[in-house]
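Team,

Forwarding the record for the chain on the shared tracking sheet. I've put the sequence and predicted structure together so nobody has to dig through attachments.
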Amino acid sequence: MTTLPEVPAELTEFWQATDRIERLQQTVSPSRLGLWHSCRLKFFFRHILEIRKAPTSSMHCGSTVHGVLKVWNMSRWRREPLVIERFKLLFDKQWTELQADPRIQWEEGEETAERTSAWRALEYYFTETPIRADDRPEAVEVAVRADLSKRGLPTLVGIIDLVRAGGRIVDFKLVGKTPDPEMVIHTHETQLTAYSVLYRDATGRQESALELHHLVRTRTPKLITTSLPPATQQQLDRLFRQIESYRQGVARRDFVRSPGFACKGCEYFGECRSWSP
């Protein structure tokens, strides 16, 4: 019986990376697009090498809150009673389950403080939300895709947090400080415009508005709601140009560092410091 030679580990890793690069050129999501344009090396660590990291405390808080909001929105769609105690139990369950693997390494007293502030912000949202209890959603956490091949671009994919009655697209954000109104519009334009494209492709209609609901988990919780008009042609053109840049950059393996203030909290800081092109 002939024994085949063992494939070198570095060659296997090269094939796997090549396969991932090919797949990443076929589709693009708002989150991948945002990461690509913020730091291409971080994109490489996360999506090409697929290095798993424990979520940061803020990421964990955001995932927990989003999970509860999904059930809250589904409850409104099903016309179920909106009982706060039920959502508190769900919050506690989500908090534990979402950090099972990989586990977060909390500093002393950090978990209790983070957990308390996240729940307070969520509880405040339930009482101050601009969404009426009888406002039945069009869609909740819906996965959508838009074929952009006619533009020579990858398929756009994404998950929209909420579509309110009348086609109002809503995205939820959990933040630690009050956002600057002008910066909110600027930094979230790509994501919201992508949702516009996805909604229009899925329904054949233009969205009526775009909304950002910022749950601010300061000592005294706040809710900052930003309402924007439907995406303009200029915004659509900017989005398509960004996707084109993504497609071309991934194809030529343009994975380089982007040092800046955001590096302080990056989970790949160690890998970045030892990176060699």
